[in-house]
TrEMBL record:
Entry's transmembrane regions: 54-74, 86-106, 151-170, 176-196, 229-252, 264-283, 295-314, 334-358, 370-393
Record InterPro entries: MFS, MFS_trans_sf, Plipid/glycerol_acylTrfase
Source organism (scientific name): Steroidobacter flavus
Segments forming domain Phospholipid/glycerol acyltransferase: 454-570
Protein name in the entry: MFS transporter
Taxonomic placement: Bacteria, Pseudomonadati, Pseudomonadota, Gammaproteobacteria, Steroidobacterales
Keywords, in A-Z order: Cell membrane, Membrane, Transmembrane, Transmembrane helix, Transport
Length: 624
């Protein structure tokens, strides 16, 4: 049965109240923060003697500071207690915080207003771990990408709307209207949270550490439990660094470089946010509703390409205090607007799979602490971004040059991360293969267990078999491959990156032969998937050869379910052994259809070589 669209989540109680509460929280954050900054900037005499630029930086720092100080405790609380309950308490506190802000606006007391801003930062600090930790508890694995996409889309739409509403309130609203609006949004968010279904605590016996620094360290330690998860968190934090660096320059970039007015700043922000929303929503479709980390390199490529293009597009602009309408009609403006939108779009493709993978590969008992660690690192990276921008501009870089530097830095960071975790790049290669070279038809993939060990067996058609199977399965797979393949240029790099297990005939290399069985047993004992091609070689004629008995030794040493797979459609491709001459292997047509079918798991005590071969033959049918 086909999986429902991600938008179906918006009519389900397990998601809709939570979505409304988090979107309204992000909306209120931005309405309050931007209203405060605008009023203090344009009505400075009645609020503060601070310079507007200094006030803006103080406000940003006060909002970020709680993430550094309290994310450790926030993560522990969300693991210790029902996450739905935590969200409700936080949303109730938001109403009181907006009451404090109301007193500040009524008395024009900047200290009270900044205190309320600090408290809103605390509100977001305690909300985030429960927010992202809740998703894997209420969504299936096939819904994780769509759910995260909806959350990111909702957040960035809330940011845009909050910015627009703040501008209207600051320009045309009196104190009463401002306070009423802020309290009303907080009240709506709290009412929405009341409908979030109750959940069971993930770690009910966890002892809360109320000391900021030790609880922070505990969260970081939990995040470091999995190297891949920790590097994914660093990738998310890098996106916040990138976004902070780009978005912080928008006002000066618009005013001094593009010659635009405040309206143009809003237009650029809307284009960026719309791009993030569209990119986030595209993730579900492009990933086939599975956690597809192959989209992450695709996203990082776009983040570099369009940051560089924004630098190249800038010299064509000219003007003085242009309105939004005049800017749109100015030569070259559409290129700038599209660059901003595409930076956002590829940012969505970059960040949504990372969030989904962190949620999928983190133990439930420590999920919120890992998210808390992510919040800490996000805040640190944003502070560092502000420092990098200040230093770069101090040493004479122009804003367009700073944007170019950001794009170049992104390329180096991406290369570094993918060198540490080749799985990202390998999944990208697999994703390209099944989207731009072939059309993959998946059937029965649900028969591959979502967790726990299993031995996958499949006919061996071509050199890309392992890549195709990897692309179809959301879980990592360790492949057993003949050692001769590891001598083929390019392919050996790919398969080593996949941590494939080389095996050689016992007579040729008994050490490699025995080592392979030891590695397979270790992987299965750790609860992982292992795939073997029982024919022991690529098919020479397109037919399925006899299965060798090596897999029976695997099942004897480590009894696990066996999942039969069949591949068809690859025999006529350039990656098979059908054609000897190189020129005959050139692609005859792109997007040729290939099929991967998975049969029902076979218990280890019922597995038998001839029966397993029969199952694979029946799955494949007459196709080659």
């Amino acid at each position: 049965m086909a999986n429902p669209s991600q938008f179906k989540l918006l009519v389900q109680r397990r998601f809709l109240p939570f979505f409304g509460a988090q979107a309204l929280g992000a909306f209120n954050d931005n309405v309050y923060k931007n209203t405060l900054v605008i009023l203090a900037t344009y009505q400075a005499a009645s609020y503060t003697k601070l310079e507007p630029s200094l006030l803006t930086n103080i406000a940003a720092g006060l909002f970020i500071l709680p993430f550094v100080l309290f994310s450790g405790m926030a993560g522990q609380l969300a693991d210790r207690y029902d996450k739905a309950r935590v969200l409700k308490v936080v949303k109730a506190a938001e109403i009181g915080i907006m009451g404090v802000a109301g007193v500040g606006f009524a008395t024009h007391n900047i200290e009270v207003l900044l205190a309320a801003l600090f408290l809103m930062g605390m509100h977001s600090t305690f909300f985030a771990p429960a927010k992202y930790g809740l998703l894997p508890e209420v969504l299936r694995d096939s819904e994780l990408v769509g759910g995260n996409a909806m959350v990111e889309m909702g957040t960035f739409v809330a940011i845009v709307l909050g910015t627009l509403v703040a501008g209207l309130l600051a320009a045309h609203g009196g104190t009463a209207l401002i306070v009423t609006t802020l309290v009303a949004i907080a009240l709506l968010g709290f009412l929405s949270s009341l409908a979030i279904p109750k959940l069971q605590p993930a770690a009910p016996t966890l002892k809360i550490d109320w000391r900021p620094w030790t609880s922070t360290w505990e969260n970081l330690r939990a995040a470091g439990e999995s190297r891949t998860v920790f590097l994914s968190i660093l990738g998310i934090s890098w996106f916040w660094f990138y976004g902070a660096l780009v978005l912080a320059q928008l006002p000066l970039y618009t005013k001094d470089v593009l010659g635009g007015s405040e309206e143009v700043v809003t237009v650029l922000l809307v284009m960026f946010s719309a791009g993030v929303g569209i990119g986030s929503l595209l993730c579900e479709r492009l990933s086939g509703r599975q956690v597809e980390i192959g989209l992450v390199p695709f996203g990082s490529i776009g983040l570099t390409v369009f940051a560089v293009d924004l630098y190249l597009a800038t010299p064509a602009m000219a003007g003085s205090n242009l309105s939004a309408r005049d800017f749109i009609h100015a030569p070259g403006s559409w290129r700038v607007l599209m660059d901003m939108a595409l930076i956002g779009l590829f940012g969505g493709l970059f960040i949504v799979p990372l969030y989904a993978m962190v949620q999928q590969r983190t133990r439930r008992e420590i999920m919120s602490r890992v998210i808390g660690a992510n919040s800490i690192l996000n805040a640190v990276f944003m502070v560092v971004a502000a420092g990098v921008a200040a230093l770069a501009l101090h040493f004479g870089l122009t804003i367009p040059q700073l944007l170019l530097l950001t794009g170049v830095l992104n390329a180096f960071v991406a290369i570094y991360i993918y060198s540490l975790v080749p799985e990202f790049l390998l999944r990208f290669v697999a994703w390209l293969l099944i989207h731009f070279v072939y059309r993959l038809d998946r059937r029965g993939i649900d028969n591959i267990p979502e967790e726990g060990p299993a031995l996958l067996i499949c006919n061996h058609v071509g050199f890309a078999d392992a890549i195709v199977i990897s692309a179809a399965c959301p879980r990592p797979i360790r492949f057993i491959m003949e050692s001769s393949i590891f001598k083929i240029p390019v392919l050996k790099t790919i398969f080593r990156g996949m941590k494939a297990i080389p095996v050689a005939p016992q007579k040729e290399d008994p050490e490699v032969y025995e080592r392979a069985f030891q590695l397979v047993a270790a992987e299965l004992r750790d609860g992982n998937l292992v795939c073997i091609f029982p024919e022991g070689r690529l098919t020479p004629d397109g037919e399925i050869g006899e299965f060798r008995a090596g897999m029976m030794r695997i099942l004897k040493e480590t009894p696990v379910p066996v999942v039969p797979l069949s591949l068809s459609g690859l025999w006529d491709s350039m990656l098979s052994r059908k054609y000897k001459q190189v020129w005959k292997r050139l692609p005859r047509r792109f997007l040729a259809k290939i099929t991967l079918k998975a049969g029902e798991p076979v218990p280890p005590d019922q597995a038998e070589v001839h029966d397993l071969r029969r199952r694979v033959v029946e799955l494949r049918g007459s196709a080659q």
